[in-house]
Amino acid sequence: MDIIVDIASTILSQMQKPTLAFLLGGMMLAALGSKLEIPDPIYKFIVILLLLKVGLGAGISIREADFVALAVPAFAAMAIGVAIVLLGGQTLARFRDVSRMDAMATVGLFGAVSASTLAAGMAMLDADSIYYEGFIGALYPFMDIAALVTAIVLARMSAQRRAAQSVAGSGSTTVSVGGGGGLGGGGLSSNIDGGMIKGILVDTLRSPAISALILGIAIGLLARPESVYQSFYEPLFRGLLSILMLLMGMEAWSRLSELRKVAHAYVLYGLTAPIIHGLIGFALGLAAHHLTGFSAGGVVLLSIMAASSSDISGPPTMRGALPEANPSAYIGASTGLGTPVAILSIPLFIALADALIGL
Q1: Where are the alpha helices (DSSP H) in 207-326?
Q2: Does the first or last residue of the chain, that is N or C, have fewer Cβ atoms within 10 Å of its Cβ?
Q3: Which residue has the higher pLDDT, 65 or 294?
Q4: How far apart are the first and last CA of the chain?
Q5: Which has the closest alpha carbon to 342: 290, 276, 287, 280?
Q6: pLDDT digits (tens, 9 = 90+) for 65-91
Q7: Is 16 helix (H, G, I), strand (E, B) or coil?
Q8: Is 120 exposed, middle or buried (0-12, 13-18, 19+ CB in 10 A)?
């Protein structure tokens, strides 16, 4: 009973933090019909600055990080990305009114990472002086790329299987890639060539979010950017994040209208998936904690990354790789519901880490 009370009190105190206050404030403004607007170029500028800050911090920390201490969480991040997509293929994609292409695009975004949600988690831990490994930002591409590639490959496999069955008609077909969109048989090698996977990887790495993050990591690792990091990026971080949270709240509310155009399954998925995915991340982070001493703050941030859904790198990647998918479904579910639920769940993961590990 004491643990439950401690978790509840921690959640309540975290909900009063500025990060969540600005998110809720943005949603309230949008709900009231406010005409407040922040130009899109400013939004993109803020996101790039935040990603460069996260990348620089990660690169600086990687220089001194133990290989095993970094490799285990990186592997966990990849496993989380793949697991979320496979789980979504067996849940959301099974609903009667949900097309498999739309479902896989949606779970791909939910498996990928939201830079704004990760930044919000870092800010909340920093506000409470909770330690976490500086290389956490470097885990972003591992989870992001693993999820996007897995979702796109499975969606393409499913589409090619249906096309082959349509050509074959009611007769027997030699196509065998396993049921329910799994990875069964030799279908992966026969239907998906290396060129397609390479194209997905290249497009993802070239996306603005991943490019900025990797650039920051490279500069932090190979150069000595500590002075500009501490004098420019660090002081601006929380202020810019508050504006981004305001924008995310307004965007989330406006996207809710798009969900009216698609099946109610997306609403259910958007409300529940972030919590479930975050718990998956927490479990693997806890395993890394026992294996390598991965910090409690690191476990929290890995959970937050798992709970988040991509709002920058994912949507354009899905638009390019899966043009048949309905953006109202996958963007509406991820931005309209997934992002605010993930951000509002941050206090839950902090409370769990405090109760099970100690912060």
Answers
A1: 208-222, 226-228, 234-255, 265-292, 296-307, 314-321
A2: N
A3: 294
A4: 19
A5: 276
A6: 777 778 899 999 999 999 999 999 899
A7: coil
A8: buried
Please name the residue that has the structure tokens 């660090």: 234
> In angstroms, rounded to a whole number, what is the distance separating the alpha carbons of residues 217 and 229?
12
State how far the Cα of 224 lies from the Cα of 237, in Å rounded to an integer. 20
For 146, the token pair is 């693993």
**pLDDT at residue 185, as a whole number:** 41
Residues 132, 295 contacting (CB under 8 angstroms): yes
In the numeric block, the tokens 């966990």 are attached to: 76
Q: Quick check: helix, strand or coil at residue 133?
A: coil
Q: Are 154 and 180 in contact (CB under 8 A)?
A: no
pLDDT tens digits for 28-46? 898 888 888 888 888 888 8
Q: Quote the CA–CA distance of 352 and 262 in Å, as a whole number.
A: 34
271, 341 Cβ separation under 8 angstroms: yes
Q: Which of 308, 249, 239 is nearest to 20 (CA)?
A: 249
Q: What is the DSSP letter of 325?
A: S
Positive or negative torsion for Cα 116, 117, 120, 121: negative
> Could you tell me the two tokens for 290?
């026992």
Query: DSSP secondary structure string, 51-92?
Result: HHHHHHHHHHHHTT--HHHHHHHHHHHHHHHHHHHHHHHTTG
How would you label 256-285 residue by residue, b for 16+ Cβ within 10 Å and e otherwise?
A: bebbeebbebbbebbeebbbbbbbbbbbbb
Tell me the C-alpha distance between 96 and 105, whole Å.
16
Torsion of the alpha carbons at 152, 197, 75 and 238, rounded to the nearest 10: -70
Q: Give residues with Cβ within 8 angstroms of 266, minimum separation 6.
A: 92, 98, 106, 259, 329, 332, 333, 337
DSSP classification of residue 334: I
Q: Is the Cα dihedral 164, 170, 171, 175 positive or negative? A: positive
The residue behind tokens 């639920």 is 341
User: What would the two tokens of residue 68 be?
Assistant: 């095993």
79: its two tokens: 């496993």
Contact of 247 with 44, CB cutoff 8 Å: no
